[in-house]
């Protein structure tokens, strides 16, 4: 039986925040009532005076007393009033208006609440005050009506500014565009100074007379230019326009290889677009091109501070504590972009040595640093109900030092915040980040529009430190967990979308380093794309340890974009559990669940569980395991799959190409109880992912997700009342099971509707906008208020229709009255076992009215007719004890009705059984009108060849317009297109399947001497036009002991002492899979396992050299180099006697460079050409030019 894992959350904390936010202090509807009853100790107003007492909410009639003018003066008053102790909370109420400051408002331990009470700085009810570090500019001059000038204090410098609440940017080239636009690319790798200098193409940087203030904003792409992990802003030391090189004043984080992205900024000559500015520091002049005119009507603000508000105690022993910041916006902050290192540890709101501080119901926007940064000792910090947007760096970041045993950043809550448009200055920023921070709850946040991760979790990569000392202690495998601080965090009910907009090798949720026992559950991860290179949705990178990833909905990944969404899940690490997740409607993703082995001493990937998940049209393949080993997965079962195209395939998993293969490897270790079914959800096409009442997923123990709770809480303070409805959810005052509600006779249920708007706000939909209708009122009637009353036994469908402001939606709810268990289904994955082999039975129920259930409350027992042959335990686990057979009986008793149901299975125990099946066509590369018998071979569980003479066979084609197959297994090609031919063999009650995927084409028309051959079960073709070949292939690989690919080749005879070469320019390889390949090949013959050398390019531009030196032997490989598309690479193999030389053309020097000599005897009659495979059923296509085979001395 499947194991179950449950996630937990800090319920008391969440509930207290829900209550706190349900009626925000400044809600417009009750502002007057609150204001009339409201009392504070001190007040601050823009009409006040710091000479007054500050104890009145507004000036008195004689204007002799009233509120303070500044928060600084209020702070002084509070300090004085609490110095001797507190007997009640002290409240400072801030009236409407903008409060400009040019020094950080700093809270220290002198400002702390004490004696069990808090100091509260909050908005006056119904009003929205702003704490601003900005200075408004109004005195403008212009010479041309386009660029305007304003005089500045020469001491004032800034890296950003704001116009009417929109960010303005430094003058730059290329100009800013949509995400990923506005960059040029490094034209060459300067290997002597790869971090300090880069090359640019002519015209990519405008000619400038003076570059002394110029800055380069660079994504160091590494030697190959692909990485986009960190974006740096670095001063320019020199530009050589003649040579096309830029020299920087300091190193970039990563090397600036060819293809790395960059732009330059900070020169008056670049000021050519609205919203750009340039500061002449020496002359004290700001040059600005406004977004709108006339400029006098615009609110233009320049920042004077980066850190606007701080809560910093003297030490961890004397923290600032017991303070509340409530309903006061923090805006108009700066960033010192050239000092990225220090600014990573700073924020517009900054906390350190802080405890029990609340920042809530406030807007943090238009700032240059991180929105809210809590560094070092920070405990009991509550960030809730805030709007955090237009942020220079990360939205919210909690961090502590790496490589330490000190655990100081913990027990914090980040709940019900809207975080968006982050990383506007520091491009590698996240929406929310925890770094060496633990035991915290991150829930009900909506995070979107982030250049990198929506949520980032990082930790010390402690595996890399084994053998080293940290704080005087040597790190060992046994004690390494002592150094983990990123632990026990709960991320739940968050809404994450549109992340990864300007980077790669990333995920919406991302973890790196040894993060331990963290939970990511009940999150809505949706509508996000990878625009270049690759990424994932949920990405557990190096050293992930014992994560629980459960009950998440991941949908609409890679609906657009040119990059590779490699998977909804990616795991590197140990003991991670992925349970009860729904992956849906992401057909362009490459895979669902992916793993890889780590490098660089990060430790293994092993012991991970993938159990009880639903894969519904969620990628081209179900699984992709890079660096597969048997211990990568511990438990992999009880999953449900549906692919509209009927293709259930795997990538990069040794011995498994199809789901059927996967279920056979390791003698049936994986997905034994998993099912393929399209009956899963109420309405997947309509994004209604409630489990249908008859969903087979229920029988596997999968439960329905409550998507309505994923995202912001009802009563979110900054919800837009005018925002239109986008989706609705039917709820009840009792437990719903997907689209089903079970009632007893005369029982009642109250239905209601929760809506989510286009921007994710939760609203209760009034009954005036909802109608209810039952199709069988005798079973279950429903009134206009949504009250359902059960009648006679049966099934009724309640249709709930919402019609509000032009939004119309219908949802169906099935009400079952008096339904009873009527039968059970027993899954028996293996009815034939070998000695000591185990398997498990799984039971689920079906009711009289068609519901599928996981037998809740039923009594289940098992019995074997002969325990000496087959043993069975109380959980239905079987073990083969001796040769023979036994009948196993499962008995189910419905405790409510007393009904008893029995199922039986005959289990045979044998010495060996059929373990694998392989089917190939005897004649490859068939065209219409041609035919071929199928050759079927099998292997037994003891690795011997199977004797299939007594096997029963069945053959099926899924598209007879392309291929038919008769009862004897003869395939006839009837047309062009694609078809699956499935072969089923049953031997000793063991059934295995194999499939051949055919893609047929018309006969090729190629230049003389060129021909096309298919190896393995690959299909494909080749064409020639205007000097260029196009080769298409769905082959799986050239690797292992036998190959599966399409080969465009010539036969060549070479005498001893002669040279044979094949040369080609590989222009492109379509990215059907990251390992799809096209490259030159020399081969000893037409057998699948013949000797060969294959020098190939991948879609990434990486080159790989693969060779097999013995017929039927294993393959070896070596890395080549990196090419860039669209240039591609010109590559060559040269055979001289028993050596093949691998080389490429260095186009910059126009000379051939040798990479490697391979000792291999290919003989005198050799095949020479280009081999292509897709590592997918989807055809890849490769464009090839300058293809030439030469023989000579």
TrEMBL record:
Keywords: Signal. Residues 1-27 form the signal peptide. It holds the Pfam family Big_2. Residues 730-812, 821-902, 913-997 form the BIG2 domain. InterPro entries: Beta_helix (IPR039448), Big_2 (IPR003343), Invasin/intimin_cell_adhesion (IPR008964), PbH1 (IPR006626), Pectin_lyas_fold (IPR012334), Pectin_lyase_fold/virulence (IPR011050). PANTHER family: RIGHT HANDED BETA HELIX DOMAIN-CONTAINING PROTEIN, SECRETED PROTEIN-RELATED. This is BIG2 domain-containing protein. It comes from Paenibacillus sacheonensis.
